[in-house]
Specification:
Structural class: alpha+beta
Organism: Jiella endophytica
Strand content: 15-25%
CATH architecture: 2-Layer Sandwich
Number of domains: 1
Distance between the termini: 18 Å
Keywords: Oxidoreductase, Signal
Oligomer: single chain
Strand order of the largest sheet: 7-6-1-3-2-8
Order of helices and strands: EHEEHEEEHEEHHH
Largest sheet: 6 strands, mixed
GO molecular function: L-methionine:thioredoxin-disulfide S-oxidoreductase activity; peptide-methionine (S)-S-oxide reductase activity
Function: Has an important function as a repair enzyme for proteins that have been inactivated by oxidation. Catalyzes the reversible oxidation-reduction of methionine sulfoxide in proteins to methionine.
Catalytic activity: [thioredoxin]-disulfide + L-methionine + H2O = L-methionine (S)-S-oxide + [thioredoxin]-dithiol; L-methionyl-[protein] + [thioredoxin]-disulfide + H2O = L-methionyl-(S)-S-oxide-[protein] + [thioredoxin]-dithiol
CATH class: Alpha Beta
Number of helices: 6
Radius of gyration: 16 Å
């Protein structure tokens, strides 16, 4: 099922992964980046996790500058998650991610095929990379195989505005897409009662 649009998006702006010093007393936040197939769905799933402050759909992993939805060869669809580590841990984000995708599929996710829809965890620090590698080993032990790439994050490029919060702006189209693509059904088939662990009451 190929998603198509009639509205052209503006070129995305580059995001620097280097943080700025926060004033004393400011809320401490961290970022995490996950590629889990359609970024609309990944964004929706993480938005339903307590402690997540913001989600941004975008592109990551390719070589070009300013990728767009219609020109992002070599990139994956991904979501940058901004979270409050005092309310939700990175380990919890990893748990939610793994149990809301099919990590055994090397060719894409659900009805969306090709590299752009393959899964990956992009660590934004060495501590995250260590935690992500440990979680990968646990999932491999649980499922027998893992096709998800775990690596250090390169530049993340935010997607066009019409992709942000798509599930909120177009709830009927979004639900039709998610159901038609078979996302929830496949995740439940792979994970059984562990499907959507941490956000089970949401499930799309």
């Amino acid at each position: 099922m190929k998603r198509s649009f009639t509205v052209a998006g503006a070129l995305a702006l580059s995001l620097s992964l280097v943080g700025f010093a926060a004033p004393a007393g400011a809320q401490k936040t961290e970022t995490a980046i996950f590629a889990g197939g359609c970024f609309w769905c990944v964004e929706s799933d993480f938005d339903h996790l307590g402690g997540v402050l913001d989600t941004t759909s975008g592109y990551i992993g390719g070589k070009a500058q300013n990728p767009t939805y219609y020109d992002h060869e070599g990139f994956r669809e991904a979501v940058r998650v901004t979270f409050d580590p005092s309310k939700v841990s990175y380990d919890k984000l990893l748990e939610v991610f793994w149990h809301s995708v099919d990590p055994t599929d090397a060719g894409g996710q659900f009805c969306d095929r090709g590299h752009a829809y393959t899964t990956a965890i992009y660590a934004t620090s060495q501590a995250q990379l260590k935690q992500a590698k440990a979680s990968e080993a646990a999932v491999k032990k649980d499922l027998g195989q893992v096709a998800t790439e775990v690596t250090t994050a390169p530049t993340f490029w935010p997607a066009e505005g019409y992709h942000q919060d798509y599930y909120k702006k177009n709830p009927l189209k979004y639900r039709y897409y998610r159901t038609g693509c078979g996302r929830n059904a496949r995740v439940e088939s792979v994970w059984g009662d562990k499907a959507y662990m941490g956000i089970k009451d949401h499930m799309g």
